[in-house]
């Protein structure tokens, strides 16, 4: 379901920005999503959503539930693990500190992830067009990463 970008004449600034974003999204989907999100999570999310469309098409029985379970039980725990790992590296801490953080707050953060993200991901993976899913998740992620930073302290 790709969206066709059409030029807008005499459009306001926000419409021109959206037009440029759609153009770049169509021409350079992975690069555009990478710039609008962390370098790793943008491309990984892009390919995950694309594969989800292939593995669980809308014609699949119970696809709404299957997509949500795939995201919440496999993708979310893995992404949270990556977040903890990358933050540990950025903070120049060792393996012991990583293990301590994992034991101390990973399970709490994962449960909160399931509480906070599940309604948004339900909407995202079932009703948002695939080309806008990374952008939709980015908007929610601003608040989520602020929460994670406070939990890790």
From TrEMBL:
<keyword id="KW-0472">Membrane</keyword>
<feature type="transmembrane region" description="Helical">
    <location>
        <begin position="73"/>
        <end position="90"/>
    </location>
</feature>
<comment type="similarity">
    <text>Belongs to the peroxisomal membrane protein PXMP2/4 family.</text>
</comment>
<protein>
    <recommendedName>
        <fullName>Peroxisomal membrane protein 2</fullName>
    </recommendedName>
</protein>
<dbReference type="InterPro" id="IPR007248">
    <property type="entry name" value="Mpv17_PMP22"/>
</dbReference>
<dbReference type="GO" id="GO:0005778">
    <property type="term" value="C:peroxisomal membrane"/>
</dbReference>
<dbReference type="Pfam" id="PF04117">
    <property type="entry name" value="Mpv17_PMP22"/>
</dbReference>
<keyword id="KW-1133">Transmembrane helix</keyword>
<keyword id="KW-0812">Transmembrane</keyword>
<feature type="transmembrane region" description="Helical">
    <location>
        <begin position="130"/>
        <end position="148"/>
    </location>
</feature>
């Amino acid at each position: 379901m790709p969206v066709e970008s059409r030029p807008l004449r005499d459009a306001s600034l926000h419409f021109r920005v959206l037009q440029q974003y759609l153009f770049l999204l169509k021409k350079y989907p992975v690069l555009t999503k990478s710039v609008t999100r962390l370098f790793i999570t943008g491309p990984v999310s892009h390919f995950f959503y694309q594969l989800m469309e292939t593995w669980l098409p809308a014609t699949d029985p119970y696809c709404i539930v299957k997509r949500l379970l795939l995201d919440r039980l496999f993708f979310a725990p893995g992404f949270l693990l990556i977040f903890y790992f990358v933050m540990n590296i950025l903070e120049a801490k060792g393996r012991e500190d990583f293990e301590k953080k994992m034991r101390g707050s990973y399970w709490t953060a994962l449960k909160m992830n399931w509480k906070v993200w599940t309604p948004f991901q339900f909407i995202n993976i079932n009703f948002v067009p695939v080309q806008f899913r990374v952008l939709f998740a980015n908007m929610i992620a601003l608040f989520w990463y602020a929460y994670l930073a406070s939990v890790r302290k």
